Amino acid sequence: MEEYIRVVMALLREETAETEIEGKRRLIRFLNPELGLINTHDPIGLYIAASGPRARQLTVKLGSGWINNLSAPAAALIGEMRSAWSASGHGDTALDAVVQVSGVVLEENEPADSPRAIAQRGRGPRYCSTAPPTRR
């Protein structure tokens, strides 16, 4: 994954990158960047969806943004990522984290653990509001 990210980010900077294709080292680049078909002028941030420990280590190593799912241990993982971020020498730059959540809009009087709701949002931790829905 690190090699793939290295190559893609180099291409987005309009650089020629060396990579392995079909078992051979090759130089690659975008063809005709001057046509404007691919936006290589505006910076594109790197975000890694990193649930596992190796992907989180790579996120810290590359100084990228971190995408994680909201789950019960999310608070502990955020603490671990902040510690790893500081220890890696990123200085005062803040860890940019994105939390991905899933949910379902309940029908009137439908319980949060109905078969339909579970099928749409999964069986993970139940974070739901007991307030009646707001009508617009």
What would you say about this model in short?
By secondary structure, this protein is of the alpha/beta class.
> Which structural class should the secondary elements be placed in?
alpha/beta
Spatially, the strands of the biggest sheet line up as: 3-4-5
Give the CA-CA distance, first to last residue.
45 Å
Order of helices and strands: HEEEHEHEH
Mean pLDDT: 84
Q: Strand content of the residues, in percent?
A: 15-25%
Identify low-pLDDT runs: 125-136
Using only C-alpha atoms, the radius of gyration works out to: 21 Å
Question: How would the global form be characterised?
Answer: extended
Count of individual helical segments: 4
- Most strands sheet: 3 strands, parallel
Which percent range fits the helix content? 25-40%
Tally of extended strands?
5
